[in-house]
Write a structure and sequence with these properties.
CATH architecture of one domain: 2-Layer Sandwich
CATH class of one domain: Alpha Beta
Distance between the termini: 144 Å
Helix content: 40-55%
Number of strands: 7
Strand content: 5-15%
Strand order of the largest sheet: 5-4-3-6-7
Number of helices: 15
């Protein structure tokens, strides 16, 4: 009896302990609420971390873009060579290994000597005093000398003393015998300024062609000519020369509209801190400059007219696309630099394959052009028809490569592929038309002089200065292109301007 009672008591105790260990519904509800709150907190933390990761990835991508932009130079982007500063990565100057040869002329080099002047200003006979063979004295008078063999000539070039020529015009008051009153002659317009034509033209030549500042010109005139001219006087002489070349400048502007081929480019400038643009338009026989406040198509309308009938060669700037719908040639050098930039700084497989394929075809394209343009440089002679025939399969290949990458995930690849696809008619004009190059290098070279002048002078300070720079750049660079002496032309321009006479035209016949 006692044993059975003990077993039943033990069973009841275990039952009671089990009921006490089982959680109640309220406890389960509270536990569930706690777990739900923890889950929500973890979700919020996860969301916040994802936002932080996204922001960090965006910052990394932005820094990578900044780093890529910092590493870009004129060889892998459309940046001008003047922007290749010392702070950034320098562009490679050449691809050849450094030579172990010493600097200077190499053994066997023929050398170049200054040719003798056929008409020297002064001839000085130099006679030997005694014979080098027997020691006997030799005659020292020209009429007593008997010569043998060829005459040895040695010329020395020097400068005469540089002195200014000062002309004083005196104006006495002449008494009239009839009325007894005095009369004085008026000062002629050609001498009114106080600086002669040579000096006025020289000042403009030094500032524009030799890129000297006004202070440098002032110091040069003081050191060499002992002339004390103020900066204001130098500025007035520079502006007078600008007025003197106004007529040929406007004549070239009108002639530009009739040119069959024009290369155009533009670069930034400043006028008293305000943004300006230096435009250049290169024809076959002259270059034309214009400084404007706009980089838009309205400048092309002002310079080339509402519709340009010739072939316009340029880069892919939007102003050219908006203005010109006729025959055009886009610069392959710009496209090549863009391809190199994408290849160097983009990390996608599309960028690598696209740039590699197009650059390979482009290398073949330029080899054909060099053979056509300059056969004496080692290539075979190509006629125009042969050039067209050989370029045609390359044109199709680039077109198909661009078509294949129109839907690329890489934005830069997609944009450039679209440009090659849409503007295929503007990329191969050089193969069919005379006077057209595949690059716009002639306009870029023409801008270089303006850029150097801008860097030295820090831009312009007035609208009148903009006009003067554009005029003088146009005239001096056109004279250089036509192999005309620049300074004599400026002297003629000042002389004709002061006497109200027409100036010789710069339009090639």
């Amino acid at each position: 009896m006692r044993a059975r009672s003990a077993r039943e008591g033990s069973r009841q105790d275990r039952s009671a302990d089990g009921r006490s260990a089982r959680p109640t519904r309220e406890q389960l509800r509270r536990e569930n609420e706690r777990l739900r709150q923890e889950n929500e907190q973890l979700k919020r933390q996860n969301t916040e971390q994802q936002k932080q990761i996204a922001n960090a990835e965006e910052q990394i991508a932005d820094l990578e873009r900044q780093l890529a932009a910092r590493k870009k130079n004129s060889t892998n982007s459309s940046k001008p060579p003047s922007s290749d500063g010392l702070a950034g990565e320098q562009r490679p100057r050449h691809r050849h290994r450094k030579s172990k040869r010493k600097a200077g002329g190499q053994p066997g080099h023929m050398g170049q000597d200054r040719p003798l002047d056929p008409e020297p200003d002064r001839i000085v006979p130099v006679l030997p005093a005694e014979c080098i063979h027997c020691g006997a004295g030799l005659p020292q008078q020209d009429w007593e000398v008997q010569t043998v063999g060829a005459l040895q000539r040695h010329q020395v070039v020097d400068l005469p003393p540089i002195e200014p020529v000062v002309t004083e015009y005196q104006y006495p008051k002449v008494l009239c015998p009839s009325c007894g009153k005095g009369t004085r002659a008026t000062i002629a317009p050609e001498i009114q300024s106080g600086q002669g034509e040579q000096l006025t033209a020289l000042i403009a030549y030094l500032t524009i062609v030799r890129k000297m500042t006004r202070r440098d010109v002032e110091g040069l005139l003081q050191d060499l000519l002992h002339l004390s001219l103020s900066v204001g006087t130098i500025q007035k002489a520079w502006e007078e020369t600008s007025d003197a070349v106004q007529a040929p400048y406007q004549e070239l502007e009108q002639e530009l509209k009739r040119q069959p081929v024009v290369h155009s480019d533009e670069t930034g400038s400043r006028t008293k801190g305000d943004k300006r643009w230096i435009w250049v338009f290169c024809a076959a026989s002259f270059w034309f400059y214009r400084i404007t406040a706009s980089r838009g198509a309205e400048v092309l309308v002002q310079v080339l007219g509402d519709v340009f009938g010739g072939i316009l060669c340029s880069d892919r700037h939007a102003a050219y696309l908006k203005y010109h719908h006729g025959l055009a040639q886009f610069c392959w050098a710009h496209l090549k630099r863009t391809l190199l930039g994408i290849q160097n700084f983009s990390k996608t497989s599309d960028a690598e394959c696209f740039c590699r394929d197009v650059l390979a075809v482009l290398a073949r394209l330029f080899r054909l052009w060099r053979r056509f343009q300059a056969p004496d440089r080692g290539g075979g002679l190509l006629s125009r028809s042969e050039l067209i025939l050989k370029v045609l399969p390359l044109e199709k290949k680039i077109f198909h490569i661009a078509e294949r990458y129109l839907d690329s995930d890489d934005r830069e690849v997609r944009n450039l592929a679209l440009a090659l696809f849409q503007h295929a008619d503007k990329l191969y004009t050089f193969t069919e038309k005379d006077g057209v190059d595949p690059t716009n290098n002639v306009a870029e070279r023409a801008l270089r002089h303006a850029v150097l002048l801008r860097k030295i002078s820090y831009g312009n300070r007035s609208a009148k200065g903009e006009i003067a720079v554009a005029r003088l750049l146009t005239i001096t660079q056109t004279c250089k292109l036509q192999q005309r002496p620049i300074l004599p032309y400026l002297v003629d321009a000042v002389r004709c301007h002061r006497r109200h006479q027409p100036l010789p035209s710069l339009i090639a016949p």
